[in-house]
User: What shape does this take?
Amino acid sequence: GNSVTQMEGPVTLSEEAFLTINCTYTATGYPSLFWYVQYPGEGLQLLLKATKADDKGSNKGFEATYRKETTSFHLEKGSVQVSDSAVYFCALFSGGYNKLIFGAGTRLAVHP
Amino acid sequence: DVKVTQSSRYLVKRTGEKVFLECVQDMDHENMFWYRQDPGLGLRLIYFSYDVKMKEKGDIPEGYSVSREKKERFSLILESASTNQTSMYLCASSFFRQGKINEQFFGPGTRLTVL
Assistant: This one.
């Protein structure tokens, strides 16, 4: 079946460091892919999305490119801030009614 | 502003109790979802509803039921709570527009502890 695999956390970085969080997927066809972010004490928010191969989603300095050949959707940011500390979830859209399949989540901690 | 609210942020119940978790959205969304979030497992879909009185099982429906009597409200029911249902429960909602990928909006979550 469809699944999403994310790199295990926590990821600990200093402010202004480069961030990569790996995400790979298994799916039939060509799913849409998403990154969600969960700040402490809050629900999930959509961070960015890509709906077809080679699309690049971007938002708040984060980027991810839909790579069909490697079935990946890695999240990157050139310079992280303390305020980026959160849990990041990769997800794919599967089937009707907007059902999402989530990865396990990766916790990011950014220190000053 | 888009809003999904959940009735409680924290809840403590005893084994065997019947538990109701309520979710309300004010966006006139057709779809509503209940997930549970556990460390290392991400979010797993329990049930979803695509219309009033309509429901579909998700990936882990055992031990849960749901109710959707009004479009804006989606309730998750634990008929007889057990300790393995201790978790964070997240509600979400979205439009259903054919052929489009519709963003899901999440509530803040309810952390349920079953003793």
Notes: The CA atoms of residues 31 and 99 of chain B lie 15 Å apart.
